[in-house]
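Protein Entry — a single chain follows
Next Lines — sequence and tokenised fold
***
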Amino acid sequence: MNPKTGDILAMASYPDYDLNTPYTPNEVLAKTYDSLSSQEKSEALYKMWSNKSVAETYEPGSTFKLITTAVALEENITTTDKANDFYCKSYEIVADRRINCSSSTGHGYQTLRKALMNSCNPAFIQLGQRIGATTLYKYYNAFGLFDSTNSGLYGEQTGLFHNLDNVGEVELATMSFGQRINITPLQLITAVSCIANDGILMKPRIVKEITNTDTSTVTEVPVTQVRQVISKQTAEQIKDMMESVTTDGTGRNGAVSRIFSRR
């Protein structure tokens, strides 16, 4: 997605299928297709044809920590580099559950920046507890996670969240790092692009313009701003921490070269 316009620059689903022969099962479906009933074959084909980026939801996992971070900074719950702000001993006990971190030895004391760099579950559990479910849900709504993005794509789904009244200690803990909630990939990239766009949420634009081949008239689909979700200052802070993740954190393998040019 282009964060400034909401333009979808690339979107793909796999396993895919041959558009020229849509009723031919792809290589994955072909393994079981002949054993299915007629009804099951129809359902399997519909699923094969679906655009998984909008028609299927999933647990976003640690990518969702950006949303929790955004809420914490916007609400002045903490700052990016407050020393000893969180403590990780490799797990967190929440109610009757032990929720582990990816580190078997723990990360010790951390700032929010370090917690994001380490993708530390206990730190984000602690952060979620400070924020509270009501405030988190207010921002989930602002980021558009309770509704479809109105992309216009067939079969688009909405996020799946617990009813706020049913959010207990465990639910609050797990959703703080992106588990036991479901959203679509398109919802996630739209929310993250909001951070990249100085806190302004954009409507995804699948088609930029439509040309009438009879009259050569071109109709442009407008760029649509939805709302300001977080401040530009908060967005800048998060982007700075996101860069730290790729230079010194768990996202090092995803780092890209910076190219500087002089005018």
